Amino acid sequence: MPTPSGPAATGPTEPCPDPAAPPEPTAPDPGAGYRLVFAVPEFRSVFAAHLLSALGVVVCEIALSVLVYRLTGSPLLSALTFALGLLPYVVGGTLLSAIADRYPARRVLVVCDLLCAGCAAAMVVPGTPVAVLLALRCATAAIAPVFAGTRAATLGDVLGEGDLFVLGRSLIRIVNQSAQLVGFAAGGLLLAAVTPGTVLAITAGTFLGSALLLRLGTRARPARQTARGALLGTSLSGTRRLLADRRIRALLLLTWLPPTFVVVPEALLIPYADLLGAGPAGAGLLMCAMPVGAITAETLVGTFLGPRARARLTFPLGVFCVLPSLGFAFRPSLGWAVVLLVLTGTGIAYNFGVDRWFVAAVPDELLGQAMTVMQAGRMTIMGLGMGAAGVAVEYAPLWVAMPAGGVVGVVCVLLVVAEVRRTRVGRPVLSGPAE
User: Fold this and answer.
1) Is the pTM of this model over 0.85?
2) pLDDT tens-digit profile of 44-66?
3) What SS3 state is found at 372?
4) pLDDT 10s digits, 6-58
5) Do 273 and 337 meet the contact criterion of CB atoms below 8 Å apart?
6) SS (H, E, C) the chain
7) 127 CB neighbour count, 10 Å cutoff
8) 33, CA 20 to 30 Å: which among 53, 188, 303, 432?
9) C-beta neighbour count of 251 within 10 angstroms
């Protein structure tokens, strides 16, 4: 597992690992990487469980949005169900983050799934007030970062800290992007055939299925931390400890900032489709473009490139993913807008390198909490980015607001990249990809 990070010691910077060091044992053949990951039985259970729960979350959002709209007739409240899927992340990611390390991982994962299943089942109860429905949505969103952080740390136990961990994280991201495409389509088809309550009941079943897979398919492991204390205090002190480390802080910012600016054009796709007169079909095509680019890039990079090549792409792809939005300054047609969004999605592959460096920088006893903070921060700042995009178009045309996000994004990402490079000085040279 990762060695603890601490104050940077003085010493020369190594641009790459020692040539005499033994090669990466976990992925000798780049093309065999994903096959080696799936060869681990525990990972197959984690993967299948995540597939079920990810689809359940997307379908739940759609069904709940439709249910709230039918009950209230309010587009605002209906849209609020989606916003509430992002905003409570900051609560779970800061106040509850210590759960990921102070309790056994399998227990945390199973309990989180059971709580989400209970929330989905409670939404089905006839006559449930809308305020309660929204509160239940908030509860599942607050649980999500704890679950995601614990699962990410568990991948380190299951796959080790090497290249298999990085590829396992990649497969989880592929599931997340695929769930957007398949989940929205499946949710739409289900809602055409049955009531929103029935769809929510199915969602509860997906969470129960995920809990069962995790309980039966993964090993019981002890908690990373044995110290006890107030959960709130432990969570806050652990978060402060992570953010106080310059290297960890820089890597967190590199994880958070590119998605913040990537969502600016994504948040404005519906009004842009209306500007083009593309109709619902054109809007749907635009919404699918970015996940398609992300899935394609993750799969190709993870399959055909080795760890060193993927690491060298980290900084270029991190900057590149915010560049295509500049093309919206030229008011592209529907086809060119789809191309720009697909290119934006390909930049997600920059996470390969960040994941490896992050798990190496974080102390083992804080790995679960660090992954929780990473996920919570990403989702929260993405929500803020979407909100900022909405405010921007109140004062500027779409073809100004969308590329403006790209300009600011390039500057911010370049500054963070420079900070990540500076914090490399004095860090232990790890066997694996160079920065």
Assistant:
1) no
2) 999 999 999 888 888 888 888 88
3) helix
4) 333 333 333 333 333 333 434 445 456 788 899 999 999 999 999 998 888 88
5) no
6) CCCCCCCCCCCCCCCCCCCCCCCCCCCCCHHHHHHHHHCCHHHHHHHHHHHHHHHHHHHHHHHHHHHHHHHHCCHHHHHHHHHCCCCCHHHHHHHCCCHHHHCCHHHHHHHHHHHHHHHHHHHHCCCCCHHHHHHHHHHHHHHHHHHHHHHHHHHHHHHCCCHHHHHHHHHHHHHHHHHHHHHHHHHHHHHHHCCHHHHHHHHHHHHHHHHHHHHHHCCCCCCCCCCCCCHHHHHHHHHHHHHHCHHHHHHHHHHHHHHHHHHHHHHCHHHHHHHHCCHHHHHHHHHHHHHHHHHHHHHHHHHHCCHHHHHHCHHHHHHHCCCHHHHHHHCCCHHHHHHHHHHHHHHHHHHHHHHHHHHHHCCHHHHHHHHHHHHHHHHHHHHHHHHHHHHHCCCCCHHHHHHHHHHHHHHHHHHHHHHHHHHCCCCCCCCCCCC
7) 5
8) 53
9) 26
Residue identified by tokens 């899935």 is 295
| Calpha distance 411→319 (Å, rounded) | 9
Return the residue matching tokens 């990373």: 224
